[in-house]
Amino acid sequence: MTPEAKTYDTGRLFREICDTLFILCVPAHLNGYDYLVSAIMRVALDRGYLRAITKRLYPEVGEEFSRAPQIIERSIRNAIETAFNRGDPDVLNAYFGRTISADKGKPTNSEFIALVAQRVTLKLGQTELSAAR
Asked: For FRET with 19, which of 34, 41, 58, 118 sits at 20 to 30 Å CA-CA?
């Protein structure tokens, strides 16, 4: 764990990530969905992963699922592409707005993972603050 590591109720974090991916129309039947959930969980708990996506994040997710890091990267990219091809453009734009490249029309894997992790942790942080009051 890096100094940036946070602690959250992992059950709530998992549910929030799954709910967000559902809203974004990431199909749950794709392998990339499971890899995304794992990657987002790791980033939500430790933002240090964002500085080492290919060197640390993909290899660790690959180890969890007994897959090569290249398969993890490609499957995540496929899940994101599928969501952007099938999803509601208004919802996707509300979530990703300016991060979407005009050339590609979708965020990169790391942009997607970082943004979803940030939104989920912010939402959980707000929930914990309101519960403490």
From this structure: 58
pLDDT digits (tens, 9 = 90+) for 43-68: 999 999 999 999 999 999 999 999 99
User: In terms of C-beta distances under 8 Å and separation of at least 24 residues, what long-range contacts does 83-88 make, across chains too?
Assistant: 83/21, 83/24, 83/25, 83/26, 83/27, 86/25, 86/27, 87/24, 87/25, 88/25
**Number of structural domains in the chain:** 1
DSSP-assigned letters across all residues of 55-112? IIIHHHHHHHHT--HHHHHHHHHHHHHHHHHHS-HHHHHHHHGGGS-TTTSS--HHHH
What is the structure's pLDDT at 3?
45
- Which structural domain, as residue segments, surrounds residue 41? 10-132
Domain containing residue 123: CATH number: 1.10.10.10
> Exposed, middle or buried: residue 28 (CB in 10 Å: 0-12, 13-18, 19+)?
exposed
